[in-house]
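TEACHING EXERCISE
Course module: macromolecular assemblies
Task: Read the component lines below, then compare them to the predicted structure of the full complex.
Student: A.B.
Group: 4
Components provided:
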Amino acid sequence: MRRYVLRRLGAFVATLGVVSVLVFVVIRVLPGDPALIIMGTEASPEAAAALRRAMGLDRPIPVQYLEWVAGALRGDLGRSIQYDVPVGNLILSRLRVTLPLTLLAALFMTTLALPLGVYAATHQRRLGDYVAMVASQLGIAVPSFWAGLLLILVFAVQLGWTRAGGFDGWQAGIWPGLRSLILPGIALGLIQAAILTRTTRSAVLDVLRADHVRTARAKGLSERVVAWKHVLRNALITIVTILGLQLGQLLAGSIVLENVFYLPGLGRLALGAISARDLPVVQGVVLFVAAVIVTLNFAVDLLYGLLDPRIRYE
Amino acid sequence: MSKASRQAARHGSFLLGAAITAGIVLVAVLSLVYTPRDPLSMDLDARLLAPSDAHPMGTDQFGRDLLSRVMRGAAASLVVGAVAVAIGMGAGVLLGMLGGYFGGALDEALMRIMDAVYGFPAVLSALLVTAAFGPGIVISMVAVGVASVPIFARLTRGNFLTLREREFVLAARALGARDWTIIRRHILPNTLGPLIVQATISFPVAILAEAALSYLGLGTQPPNPSWGLMLKDAQSFLGRSPWYALFPGCAIAVAVLGFNLLGDGLRDLLDPRAS
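Instructor-supplied answer key:
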């Protein structure tokens, strides 16, 4: 197991390195002068040169990259041009919305998908299975932002049960804060719940056909004990893997949903930064989200090796 | 009738997916030569009209006919989807081919790059590229395409790793065939089935991603019709004109459903082991 962890850790560090190079290259090296992108083409040459010096753009590219990465490792992602505060602080403050939103969507996704997937598999080719599969096929086809608009239309516009969007901050209380995140959480989790339902069904069906399940049945164990003790535990290897990868997708998806529901999270921060030409913020948010997704993938790899010994001996 | 055709004719979801996809493609092609009204022509006296005989899907805030815009939006979605999948497939197959065939340090380096690119879903890479180059349909096609490169690269690499040790490849090598000839004539044709299936599965993902990017203002720009952009505009009029948000959303869902069913069916027919 130690060798497996060390090998995966090496790959993880290398991947993070490539992520940082990609983010840096797109903003700093591809055609286009960051100083002119920030100030606009109408900026005077003197002002642009001063900004270039202040941002360290007059130094060689490799030096700029190393300084930027060293800063990022210390948590220093530069300073926002728009807000004049450290980018790291901005990201942390916006995470107070994005993280609960992502977790709420994950909670909705697993609560809905796991029982539905297990039910569909244990009732294969019966009415319940067909209904679950049609529902999941439709769920995968519905874009999360349209689901968000429909939820606003029904629950805010037609029924008036909740607001159409906005977030008053956690200082207004935990319940008002959570209430603002429920509809976006459902919209965000819907498509992933549909995917997880199908994965769970497929994983459970695979295990149901395995020899050890046949043996358990031959021993006279009840279907309930077979399903929960012998099937679900083994199917969890596949389910947990997909679940980990889906967390990254939910985090990226929150960028869109925050804009549907006007939530002040990382997504709105990044989009606002694009309009304001605040490149350090865009760079910081993209690096942060990509690094979290890569870290989640690494965690999934480790968990996979832990749950299934065949993987770590490959 | 061949065995494959008979299997396809009996596969319900494949037939449904093929019918929906054919319908969407037909509407998209038709919209290039005919729409009930000009999708760009404004009529300020006909703003936000409810569906009627004159405007079966109603009109938008500028009085433009929504049916015509939804039809033209199909063409935009299909073009973006096709180009994005072509980018993802082209780059992915090339990288997966190199890594899978030659192996070693090159394979290791390419897979680390693919792991890193996998950390950039379409929305994230679009944010990054838009910050540098500004928004636009080309940016969204590139962002969506790049996001799908790792899937194609891994699929191709996996197939190449298996196929390069097979007897017919070893025989070709023993007969003195060059690497490029072996790749082009012996291995690549055997990976086409799974690649076609993956392309069909990636297509609806690309349509969804393009719609999301246009909704965020990072994809297709006004006044060009795009389903995502229409939904963005519709959000401001949800209370007054709810149908405005219904039709473009339904169009996305039906298109994605059609391609998903087609992809699932193709996978069952062409690559039964994967299904």
